[in-house]
Amino acid sequence: MSEPSHLRGTAASLGVAVGRARLVGWERRRCPRRQIEPAAVSAELARFASAVSSSGAEIEAAKRELTQKHGPTYAPILDVHLLMHGDALLVDAVSNVIREKRVNAEWALSEVTERLKKPLLEDPSSYFQERASDIDHVKEHLLRHLSGQQPRKLNVDGPTVIIARDLTPADAVHVLAPPTVGLVTEHGGGSSHTAILARTFGVAAVVGLGPLPTDIEDGDLVLVDGFSGEVTLDASPEQRRAAERRRDRFVAFLKAERPRNAVTQDGVSISVTANIELPTEVAAAVENAADGIGLYRTEFMCLDRREPPSEEDQLDLYRGVIRAMTPKRVVFRTFDWRGDKRLRLNGVAGQEDAWLETQIRAVLRASAEGPVALMFPMIATLTEFRAARARVDQCRAMLRDQSARLAPLPVGMMVEVPSAALLADRFAKDADFFAVGTNDLAQHALAVDRHHGHCVAGPLDPAVLTLLERAISAARAAEIPCSMCGGMAADPVSLGLALGLGYRHVSVPVGFVPLARAVIRNVDLEAAGQAAHDALECVSADEVRELLLERLEPSLGALWKAQGLV
Questions:
Q1: Domain 38-147 superfamily per CATH
Q2: 0.90 cut: is pTM over it?
Q3: 3-state SS class at 435
Q4: Which residue, 43, 272, 305, 492, is the most exposed by fewest CB within 10 angstroms?
Q5: Catalytic residue at 193?
Q6: Which one from 193, 395, 444, 482 is the annotated catalytic residue?
Q7: What is the pLDDT at residue 119?
Q8: pLDDT tens digits, residue range 478-498?
Q9: Which fold has domain 5-25+156-249?
Q10: DSSP of 4-53, one letter per residue?
């Protein structure tokens, strides 16, 4: 490549990376159909069984390496793929296709994985799109072992940017270690396992770029902007120096920000907590001095399982998270089987009640370890929320442990559907706290089809802002806490607007905690409040954003420009 090429994807891990490209897994594996003789079926079954065994051993080795380097809490990321190696829906189904159709294992594996992926890809949620990627990752591992091919060894000098169509978590354990500083993939999303690992390891990442230029070669200079989601190939010397300066400023900024508090220019303290999905992110929340865990998405422990972990297993996990964060509070969100958070098991509705009670009991028992709260997602009616609270009371009455029965457990709700925001004053009489999910609230309020990934509903739309203002006003009148835990709080421009609307608690992705504090310290609440008042009178999200850039520029412009955030 000779001219700089600018590509844009999803910013999956904050940071700026400057390094030389290393292509990983770039070859496309073909799986031609080959008929086998009846007498050869047993040998083909044995060949597939051997591939399953060796592939599982490779992932187990990666799991051990991950645990040795970063502790046991990282294991669940790879446990998902290990579970699939023993899943009858995959392994037994492939063996049956080999046996019944008398075809080679590669073809049978492709047929079964495509069948398993089909309903996931048809689901309108990004969650299931990424679960389909998990199936592809396991398929890639198995095909590699069927072919006898060994993972490519990376013998490199200096900072490296990994370029891949996709990257399995097991491969990520190996290639995201130093000297890797950046990751670029054609596929994947911000909540994929590989993206979580990139954030955990501090590797700047941009994913989901779509087809990359075919003339990328090992050694090409690559700039990765984990703020804007932009990737520059074959950058000019000036672009490289500018990126290196931004990288160095960001590293110094993180070191300086971690111990600092979030207090506005007019002396108001703002709580900044972290959103996490796996225990792996707790250490980063502690390191970044988050004020607690404002949103623990518990459904991520159920990925690719037929049912949630047992009460004892959940109890162990919750206790570990609470102990790590004590004396700061952890807010656990209950499982949500609707929409994009269902398990793979059919007939979930028949077991949902029992599973929910198991989870509530585990949280109640864990609450004796330190400050804990429980909140319910996707609450649409007051009847729903009252039933949820009654269930917590019933579970508490069932406990034998007196300390767990007496431990305080605030019970709150997500405000993420319009009905909850519209009737927030009524919900506030029953809820101990609100947590506003701006992503889902915007999607539902603006009737955006989530199946179209490039069509994003923005929380800056005046209709959404009206709902946000209604929720915080109701919480303030009822004197209950109300946090904002959606994407709006993690945007360096719209965070100022959230403060202007009246939000004093925000929960953001763990890597954004230092930046959120820096933004808050540069905000004057009187100016932000006037900007919020005027934003409610705007006619479009674009108009709102332009207003914010103009009004908040005097106090936040230097920070935005220094970090390249706008």
A1: PtsI, HPr-binding domain (1.10.274.10)
A2: no
A3: strand
A4: 43
A5: yes
A6: 193
A7: 81
A8: 999 999 998 899 888 899 999
A9: Glucose Oxidase; domain 1 (3.50.30)
A10: -EEEE-EEEE-SEEEEEEEEES-SPPP----B--GGGHHHHHHHHHHHHH
